[in-house]
Amino acid sequence: MKTIFSPDQLLHAPTKEISDGKLVAAHEVPARAEIILEHIRKAQFGEIQPPKEFTLNAILKVHDTDYVHFLQDFWKLWQEAGRTEEEVFPFVWPVHGLRHDIVPDHIDGKLGFYSFDAGSPMGAHTWTAARSSAETALTGADLILSGEGAAFALCRPPGHHAHRRLYGGYCFLNNAAIAAQHLRDQGVGKVTILDVDYHHGNGTQAIFYDRADVQFLSIHADPKVEFPYYLGHANERGLKEGAGYNHNYPLPHGTSWDKWGEALEDACRTIMKFAPDVVIVSLGMDPYENDPISQFRLKTDDFTRIGARIAQLGCPTLFVMEGGYLIGELGVNCTKALSGYLD
Ligand code: SP5
Ligand code: ZN
């Protein structure tokens, strides 16, 4: 199995985030990708290659043009506004009852317009890193198209919280969604996205909510008590043509393999009924018992089980990296998931 990664993805390097009501050290840092890369090298799964370059077209199939231009131009606008902070946070949002139909001219208005949290600071190189991360997922999708049975897109920054026109949850471009859409546009009939990150994949769900060609399933902490709080409930089943193609498995804090594994089993049976041509796994390591921001209790060997169950689906599979914040165990757990798939 090949791995795709670019050092450009390390250029987004926040040092702090607003979380739990205060300014804390950033969790989504370049060292995450570096430690995973180191363990992938040691595991010798196969070649590690840089992403190919893509035009913006594949990204614009998923994200709105004004949003992409905002991300792309952000640093220039920030400097033109005479601002000097190196890490930038939104602080006001157009929530219930406020207007969404006029994009503000002022940079602070734009920041809130295109975001849903204050946990995802932007800097001078955020766009470069996010674009590169999306190209990593696209290159992985191309490997699957060229006949590879599996590939690992070592994406960072992650993507599953990003909506068509919103960033948040450390995510700017929805890498898994961009890969899924690319596969569809290259003639793949049906794609499943299975999201095993601790947090609900709100962005991915929203992007494909009214579609029957991309099935979405997410196993995550109950949004009643966990980020992203406002999406990810069990009764979100899809809309219009997409009705019945969205499946959420919200689980309580403290969940360990017994209940998590049951949800995975149910999800896999639902995937088999859909009979996808390609499976994309939004692979988060944050269900791990010692993850610093999460409250599930999966153990290292449980990640092997996840990989092995996914392999039983017998489908070409693109793994796309999402979250996971215990730097020390991130590389081990990630390679366990992939070797569970391969063995
Ligand atoms: C991709 C991904 O995993 N994004 C997650 C973003 C989560 N940001 C909010 C973190 C809130 C942490 N609350 C921890 C409480 C325990 N101290
Ligand atoms: Zn997560």
TrEMBL record:
Biological process annotations from GO: epigenetic regulation of gene expression
Record's keyword annotation contains Calcium: no
Annotated keywords: Hydrolase, Metal-binding, Zinc
Pfam families: Hist_deacetyl
GO-annotated molecular function: histone deacetylase activity; hydrolase activity; metal ion binding
Stretches assigned to coiled coil: none
Needed co-factor(s): Zn(2+)
Residue ranges annotated for the Histone deacetylase domain, each copy included: 28-337
Family indicated by similarity: Belongs to the histone deacetylase family.
Protein name: Acetylpolyamine aminohydrolase
Organism: Pseudovibrio axinellae
